[in-house]
Design goal:
The protein is mainly beta. The protein has one domain: Umud Fragment, subunit A, CATH 2.10.109.10. Strands 3, 4, 5, 6, 7, 8, 9, 10, 11, 12, 13 and 14 form a 12-stranded antiparallel beta sheet that branches. A two-stranded antiparallel sheet has the order 1-2. A hairpin with a 2-residue loop joins strand 5 and strand 6. This is Peptidase S24/S26A/S26B/S26C domain-containing protein.
Length: 216
Amino acid sequence: MSAFTGFENQSKAYLEYPLDLGDIIHHPASTFIYTKTEFDRYNLLHRNDWAVVDASLHPEKGDVILIELNAEQCLIPLDKVVWNEDMLMLGVLIAIIKFHRGKSVLPDLNIADLSKSLNSLLIASPETSFISQAVGNNMLPLGIPNGSLNVIERHVDYKDGDIAVVYQKSTFYCRRLNFSEGTLEDGYGISMPIQRPFSVEGVVTKTVILFRTLLQ
């Protein structure tokens, strides 16, 4: 696989390196996937997202944690927690995985297999996919903050409204396609005209937002 960096910084170079998304999991036996409940008000986690939670970590300043209260679970920043004797901490949030195309299907996995299978779950066709790292917050409103990892799939048929990696004017961009207007849009709706030569390098199907764990 390969990675493009610097979609917002044209001076950044094209890089290639091996990457396995399972590497975000450092403690497989204590890591699990959590999905949003009606009780959960954490605004960065949406219905179609997966939250990757590590139950073995000790919470630190700036962390987001998963708690259980009155048989209900939710994510909450550590600095906003008002502890009481009925509250149970279930783990520390290490990543949120956003699905931009289609609905996510939570796999029926043994937790010990999660680190081994996460990469294959997110990248169905490695030979036609690559990973990009977002630089800048131009796509933040669409769930792609600075530093997040994007799964780009070349084999997916792109359509109007998709988030994609495109190449025009000798530069790579990550933008939403708006063919009806002939433009490329960032997360704030700021558009730039599509200009030839132009190519769509792949569709952004998933984004991995890292909270605590760094890839090794």
